[in-house]
Amino acid sequence: MILLLGASGYIGEAFTAELRKRNWDHRSIPRSEADYTRFTSLLELLRSLRPSFLINAAGFTGKPNVDACESQKAETLFGNALLPQSIAQACEVAGVPWGHISSGCIYNGGKILHDGQERIETDLTRPELQGLLTGRREQVRGFAETDTPNFSFRHPPCSFYSGSKALGEEAMTGIGRSYVWRLRIPFDAHDGARNYLSKIQRYAKVYDNANSLSHRGDFVKACLDLWERRAPFGTYNLTNPGFVTTRQVIQRVQDILKPRREFEFWTDDEEFYRLAAKTPRSNCILETGKLRETGVVMRTVDEALEDSLRHWRPEAPQNFSPAHGSLSPA
Ligand SMILES: NC(=O)c1ccc[n+]([C@@H]2O[C@H](COP(=O)([O-])OP(=O)(O)OC[C@H]3O[C@@H](n4cnc5c(N)ncnc54)[C@H](OP(=O)(O)O)[C@@H]3O)[C@@H](O)[C@H]2O)c1
User: Fold this and answer.
1) What count of Cα atoms within 13 Å lies in the side-chain half-sphere of residue 251?
2) Is 267 within a domain?
3) Within the chain, which residues score under 70 in pLDDT?
């Protein structure tokens, strides 16, 4: 049996759907039933239920967006750093292997190949790089799992959310047998306040940058595939291979969904941070070669975006509840 923590969340519900589809025996425990954030109650739970694997999809994301983490620092640290360490220790004591949802937001930028040398570029919006992002893409590389996070408390500046996610990875390192699954900007065909494709269609103004993205369903499938084939434990970047700029995503939205609105972009970072965001945002490209070597396949980001938009299930405006987020920049 697989024990799922955080099943009520945006990512947790996708795990439930995929576990059901696979007919894998699983059980979800809400915090209200057993407070798994306490070491002793989680250990008791593990000893009584004896799961073969645990998935931690619980964490603190900040509502309506990561800016909220700046004013809820205790909750952010508790959910993203203390919780994974406590789960790691309980799982080690009980001998249960497990997987933790981390984030690619602990990096900023990408790597540029120039004269056979790679250099880290933290600002991919620089005008001289636009030709690389739209044309000579083979000269753009992402961060690999072996790269030290460069958007963290140890490498500021960072948002408090990103700092807490990087600390969470660090806090569980070397304890027991676990996967760290890095998710980045989830999207799929289901219109909703947490879906990146919904957000960019509803922002008053759009922020342009280059990013790797994760199709929500592809992400949870890849997590379960890694466990199913008993891939080596460790950290995996689970984004759909490749990267896109926001302008490229908007172009696909216009081509496929043909919305009756024009899209306006923030002029530059200065305007965006002055008027729309409180804390620095991570924008980054991730490498996915380590996942590929395990034999687990995620389709390219272009394919996943195309598929999501072709099968788009719009939500009626009156049903578009911002309960899990808002229309302000994530
Ligand atoms: N969504 C994204 O854009 C994104 C991107 C990258 C990484 N991630 C990571 O993916 C994981 C799941 O995110 P999500 O978007 O599914 O989050 P979510 O929708 O806000 O759900 C959070 C889940 O965590 C549980 N939880 C347990 N302890 C918590 C605590 N101390 N504070 C808040 N919630 C707590 C909640 O349970 P209750 O029902 O009991 O409140 C809920 O089930 C998080 O670790 C997040 O950092 C998310």
Assistant:
1) 8
2) yes
3) 318-330
Which token pair is 4?
A: 């799922």
The 10 Å Cβ neighbour count of residue 269 is 17
Q: Is residue 77 part of a domain?
A: yes
Please give the single-letter amino acid code of residue 75: E
Residue 242's Cα: distance from chain center in Å? 15
Q: How far is CA 307 from CA 160, 296, 313, in A?
A: 34, 19, 12
Whose CA is closest to atom 33 on ligand 1?
60
Is there a domain that residue 254 lies in?
Answer: yes
Q: Which domain holds residue 25?
A: 2-324
- Compute the distance from residue 21 Cα to the ligand 1 centre, in Å: 22
pLDDT in tens, 207-246: 999 999 999 999 999 999 999 999 999 999 999 999 999 9
The span from the CA of 298 to the CA of 89, in Å, is 31
| Pocket mutation for ligand 1, best pick of 31, 152, 178, 195 (most atoms within 8 Å of C-beta) | 31
Count of structural domains, the chain: 1
60 CA distance to ligand 1 middle (Å): 5
> Which residues are paired to 27 by β-bridges?
3
The CATH number of residue 97's host domain is: 3.40.50.720
Q: Is residue 330 part of a domain?
A: no
281, 208 Cβ separation under 8 angstroms: no
pTM of the model: 0.95
CA of 82 from ligand 1 middle (Å) equals 14
